[in-house]
Amino acid sequence: MDIKKTPLSFFLLIILFFIHNFCFAIDTISSAEVIRDSDSDTITSLNETFKLGFFSPGNSSNRYVGIWFSTLPGDIAIVWVANRDNPLADSSGVLRISSDGNLVVLDGRQKVVWTTNVSVGTNSSRAELMESGNLVLREVDSRGSNVGNTGRILWQSFEHPTHTLLQDMKFGANVRTGEKEIITSWKTDSDPSEGRFHMELEPLNIPQFVLWSGSQRHWRSGPWGGNTFLGVEGMSNLFLNGFSVNRADQEGYVFALLSYVKKPLFVRYVLNSIGRIAETRFDEGENRWVEDWSAPLTQCDFYGKCGSFGFCNLLSSPICSCLKGYEPKSIEEWNNGNWSSGCFRSSPLQCERNNTNSDEGKDDGFLKHEKMKVPDFVNSERAPDMEE
Ligand SMILES: *[C@@H]1O[C@H](CO)[C@@H](O)[C@H](O)[C@H]1NC(C)=O
Ligand SMILES: *[C@@H]1O[C@H](CO)[C@@H](O)[C@H](O)[C@H]1NC(C)=O
Ligand SMILES: *[C@@H]1O[C@H](CO)[C@@H](O)[C@H](O)[C@H]1NC(C)=O
Ligand SMILES: *[C@@H]1O[C@H](CO)[C@@H](O)[C@H](O)[C@H]1NC(C)=O
Ligand SMILES: *[C@@H]1O[C@H](CO)[C@@H](O)[C@H](O)[C@H]1NC(C)=O
Ligand SMILES: *[C@@H]1O[C@H](CO)[C@@H](O)[C@H](O)[C@H]1NC(C)=O
Asked: What PROSITE patterns does the annotation carry (predicted)?
């Protein structure tokens, strides 16, 4: 009896091994494969950090194709959405490589609701979900023989972020072509379509992050100071490195790159639907996502709160004051708590004074101010020391 049983359980083990492989270890979609919502199909990155498949956000019953952290308990953390502006109403959707080589999402009537929309040429292609969370569409030569990561990259989700920045994702702008990456908030927690807020890296001569509310500047990080953004506290300070900003390369591309020394580390920067950019980390001790940092948070964080030549201090009342030598442009607005018009210079500079009579005002000099952002659109100049 026992002798008869052994080959059977051995056989079962082999089947289980194959089922396990089939369900969890597949990280690519080739031309023959179809990911069906109705079968709850997903693909999983090599070490199972990320999953790609269909999901419904929040209270919505709409179906979307997205990428999320796969192994973490609790709420699934969506990091990318394909058809964010074009939801599927039921679970008849499929994700596949179309006959033109693009990765597409089709509804039950075979209508394209989303496509990578690139030109593939005569070769075929294959999509792969990388361990970083990047979904990469690669060229596969006509014999389908280039196994591994050798084919030319035709499209990648890291170049088309939705509302989340992940480690190893380059986020930037090209100063020559004007092309840039942006992240855009969801409309609500149950609706991933494009909301009111977006963020970009502004490639000024010193780059900075700028968060927009519609066409209005809403928050800015302040310029990159070499180790951190000058004007934010606590951003990426929890870990070694964090953001680094790279100056324009040969092609004119300026980008910020989020990377930590400690890996694997589950961390993401999310622009949420109320217009806040937040650093969120999975805390293995607490077994949940925790927010380490976010902005804008206080009244003083909002762009131009106290207007030009004004400054903001949460501990004073009112919170806005004019710099020394400046007065409110409109006393009435100022007294009503509308500080946006800012301040004007009330005592002329030395070079503006006509009178050569020496006792009419002191020589111009510099005042040191701390805990303030430098002005927007600032230029930098290297000086050997303070005196200079
Ligand atoms: C996957 O995990 C193995 C074992 O922990 C590790 O050696 C390998 O570098 C990981 N691969 C990736 C792509 O993260
Ligand atoms: C879902 O609906 C409940 C009840 O209306 C609400 O409290 C909750 O915030 C909603 N969740 C999301 C993600 O919108
Ligand atoms: C694909 O790209 C072309 C050219 O950029 C554009 O005109 C077209 O609308 C796009 N199609 C879809 C379905 O996004
Ligand atoms: C097809 O792919 C192979 C290998 O990736 C490449 O060498 C070749 O140039 C490609 N052909 C075309 C027409 O793109
Ligand atoms: C504040 O003043 C500015 C400039 O006069 C005006 O455009 C804006 O509407 C005012 N804001 C509010 C909230 O009243
Ligand atoms: C300086 O002189 C010019 C021309 O006479 C005049 O317009 C200006 O108001 C004077 N400035 C001050 C600060 O007195």
From this structure: BULB_LECTIN
- Atom number in ligand 6 closest to CA 348: 13
pTM of the model: 0.85
CATH number at residue 83: 2.90.10.30
In tens, the pLDDT along 54-75 reads: 999 999 999 999 999 997 877 7
- How many domains is the chain partitioned into structurally? 2
**Ligand 5 neighbour 304 (Cβ under 6 A):** no
CA 175 to chain centroid, in Å, comes to 19
Cα–Cα distance between 40 and 56 in angstroms, integer?
12
Q: DSSP label at 168?
A: T
Backbone angles phi, psi at 211, to 5 degrees: -105, 130
65: in domain: yes
Find the helix or strand (DSSP H, E) in which 320 lies: strand 320-322
Yes or no: say if 192 and 179 are a contact pair by the CB < 8 Å rule: no
For ligand 4, atom 2: residue with the closest CA: 141
In the predicted model, residues of the chain with pLDDT beneath 50 are 1-25, 238-240
The domain of 146 spans: 20-156
